[in-house]
Amino acid sequence: IHRTLAIVDRNQNGRAILAAEGVGLSSLITIDASLFKQAADTSLISSDQLQQILAFTHDPDRYMTTFLAGHPGYLEAQIALGGSSRERALRCLELGYGQRR
Known about the structure:
Elements: E1 3-9, H1 14-20, E2 24-30, H2 33-41, H3 47-58, H4 60-70, H5 74-81, H6 83-94
Parallel strand pairs: 1-2
Helix pairs in contact: 2-3, 3-4, 5-6
């Protein structure tokens, strides 16, 4: 494969990862800060939500660490919900975020 297409580029380093493997990426849309700023300007999201999104996109590891420190039972609650919530919470634990008690 020398080139691939994504409908949505979430702008989370996928382009660089593919480029390192010699694969070019074309996308129909790239999600970046301007999209979220426009959503806040039109009251689709609050300014608090905008700040959370920008903090996450700037440094996802720091955001996750800070969020989980402020919400100590969050992952356990998500695991208890089952389904995709459980799967995402377990993935967070696999990646080293939070600790199971």
